Sequence to fold (734 residues):
Amino acid sequence: MNAAFVIASRNIRQRIRDRSAILFAVVIPLGLATAFSLLIPRGSDFHTAFVVHDGDGGQVAAALVEHLTGPIADDGIADVSIVSSETAALDRLEDGSTSVAILIPAGFSDAVTSGAPTTIRLVGLAEAPIGTQIAQSIVGGFASEVGAVQLAIVTAADWQPGAPLPPIDPQTVAAIQALPSPTRVTDTTLERRQADTTTFYAAAMSIMFVFFTTIHGPLGLLGERRVGTLARLLAAPIAPGSIVLGAALVAFVLGLVSMAVLVVATTMLLGATWGPPLFVAALCLAAVLAAMGISMLVCTFARTDEQAGGWNAMVAITLAILGGAMVPLSGAPELLHQLGRLTPHAWFLEAVDTMSASSTSFADILPAVTVLVAFGVVSGAIALVRAPRFLVAR
Amino acid sequence: MTATVPPPTAHPEPAASRLVMPESRATISPPVLRCDGLVKRFGERLAVDEVGFEIAPGETYGLLGPNGAGKTTTISMICGILRRDAGEVTVAGQRLDPGATKAKGAIGFVPQDLAIYPDLTARENLVFFGRLYGLGGRRLRGRVDALLEVVGLADRAGDRTDQFSGGMKRRLNIAVGLLHEPRLLVLDEPTVGVDPQSRNAILASVEELGSGGMAILYTTHYMEEAERLCHRVGIIDEGRLRAEGTRRELVALVGQRDRVALAASGDLHAGAAAVHALPGVDEATPRDGGLDIIVTEARRILPRLLEAVAGAGVEIRSVEVIEPDLEAVFLHLTGKALRD
Fold:
């Protein structure tokens, strides 16, 4: 064991000295995570801007404005601003600072309370169809609610067709709105299951590049063979297992440091929200084990360190693509989802998504942690079986 | 070997031979290395076939053979680098079995290829390997400092070894093998690709180590190195140890004799008759401008031989002693030249 530490500490010192580990462990993944999070929006990060002109100023119009400026602004879906004239609203559209103008006409409140028809105009930019659809949905929802109130009042007043509509007074509306809705729809799926763009790409780059870090352990062994020092290590009074263990320690330490630095750096610099620290630590530990096992296995098939480096890069990038670390799998066909489950990357990213929810227990990420550890144990065990063929001095 | 007399080349005479001399060093004190029946196959190819020999304390044993003869494979098995298919190795009384670490601790290994880290300094290399051999603290620092002095790298101890010349790297390579003061030093062709100056320094170091009591196993395909350094030589070819013994024993084994060529004038027939009567002289033939004399051991008989020739009225202008060398032995044993 002591020999393994001696070998590992020397190897880590060399890696730090040649700076390659730092480059692959920290600099490149951090840079790519920053670039991707800035350039590629993810589904949950949609953002638009509405401008509202209240040409009425009545009670119902005020309720609509409140409806528009409430939840969607609070959820960060849209910035909603109020302007004093229709011209100002349309100017905002012209200059591209808003996607949709919502124009409430004069007499809107009176028309609603008297049951007369009225129209709310939505003017949307052609290049912002999603924003326009959202505005339509919100305003349409408000209109449905008004219609429901009207229906409730005419029903309560025993209104007969052909008779004038009963007036809608605010107290009656408030009383009706206070009644519990017969149908309640809740949607917690998005809240529970998707990390924000920054966190996603921070995690994606971390899991992808940890493979480029852990490879330095077994690469060190191939390097020993190339420079001739493996013969000397094999002749030393140490168990051959210490040499392999030394390489594994290097892979583990570099992988863990890489992950830790990226978690801290992306949290502090990019605002990534990984989740509860202990859960993140467990997940990162499992991911490093998986990467370590796979890297070591890849190396046992290589004859030279250059070959091993190339093969490892190929495996790391292929797994990253299949596992959704380069492009999210959310919109991918089912087959790709299934293929993704065969990679550590998909499990890791799924766990990061899971941890983004406000209430996550360890049981939620336990399957991912277990699968990642299993990846590491199985591939590492095969690598160990192949180790005697690998530990041959040239 | 061709030498002009006087004096004959300095040569460490054999102290012992396991095969020929009954009272060899190997029997006087327990051998540091005993290997027996070593066999190694690579697929269908038999790389080492039943190789065995012993090395006594203070003895330098040369394994002489051309490239591909099985020298490196043999020492790889002795050092535990390569798993042997058959045979036994005992180092300092400890069996060298797979996974055995105690026996390996008695061996200092200097591989043929440089086995030092180019991106570490000379001192860092020595400290690292010293720790692997269980050294630490003051003893390790002391050994590192001492060896840096011995190999003349004390003033470059803090420099990365990729800035060293080939000779400096070779010297450091040897120093690593000596760190833990091994009882057996195994040197695998340590002078390959080395400039003449560094080569001489390395050979002198090996001579000094041998005289200090260390057992040395030295592989080479340079006949001159084997003759200069080794008390005994094993001739290996195609994985088989063809013969072993002192240089003289090997020469005798193949029936080779020394030739003394005299450039002389006067009564050459009288001179030939005079030396022919001496014990140890097999033939004496007058030729144009001199005499050719075939003897068993030229160095021993030379003074009396010259006295007898001069006594017969022959004027001697020069003397040349031609001794059969290991090259000739190798040729005789294998039917091919050492560097084929």
Q: What stands out?
A: Chain A touches chain B at residues 3, 6-7, 10, 14, 17-18, 227-229, 231-240, 392-393 (CB under 8 Å). Residues 185-192 of chain A have pLDDT under 50 and may be disordered.
